[in-house]
């Protein structure tokens, strides 16, 4: 059945994939280090999907006259790259989750900046120290291939909580991003730790059980949604926007907001000793403006940090969700240790 589903949906999924792997803005992975100090270009490292990043870069260039050279990699790869370039960075702006900024600030890899645009952002999503500049809110979710679930379970109710997901029907049928490489995967792991209220033993016991369900770990956060869309896997861990995109492309994806749902603040930071600091500041201000914020919601399908921006179509209102008490500072501080434990524990 998997082969049949894959063949039937390959053409439509290929359209999504081709959009995602196109060249970004005016730069590629090989050319990201070429930003100069003349103010004519800004180099942006981002884990944002490539097509939205390209569209944002082009819109900023049209309005400002400043070219944006984009390097798109997973969050883990970008953090490693930033650390490797310490003292001689190629990037001016780096996209990250708010929890990643603490360790980067301590290592003097990013710098503080007071954004004027932050005056129009909900205070809950503003860093009082000025290191991270919020652009979107991202939910960690599960996607289920509705047709396969119906056929293989006889229409049984789809699990709606994290604990309900630990069932034999999902053994080997879950795909998730590698938490040591992907911000999506790490958000899932941190969510389990936070929802167990500091009981790390209980959190790891749950992760032991969940790991038994995983048939594949992917390098990127966006891959599971596509593998579930084609029916190669029955369920997958993903950010909400990736699942909304494949569902809206016509795939039979059932969105599950496991209770309590993890939510992270994603945005950007200014790189210390960057080639074009003034251009980076202008880009940060623009990204937090209303027009760019609406573009991000429309293109990425994430939740906005501004009250004057519309929600993505088909998304649940945050007030209707049971959200975990996600601590971004602790998430950043424990990321290295948690990732190392995960890799050692599960051999990835």
Automatic annotation (TrEMBL):
Give GO cellular component annotations, separated by semicolons: outer membrane-bounded periplasmic space
At the top level, the lineage of the source is Bacteria
Q: Name one GO molecular function term.
A: thiamine binding
Query: Which controlled-vocabulary keywords does the entry list?
Result: Signal
Record InterPro entries: Ferric-bd (IPR026045), SBP (IPR006059)
Instruction: Output this protein's name.
Output: Extracellular solute-binding protein
In the UniProt record, the signal sequence range is: 1-25
Q: Which Pfam families match?
A: SBP_bac_8
Q: Name any Gene Ontology BP term.
A: thiamine transport
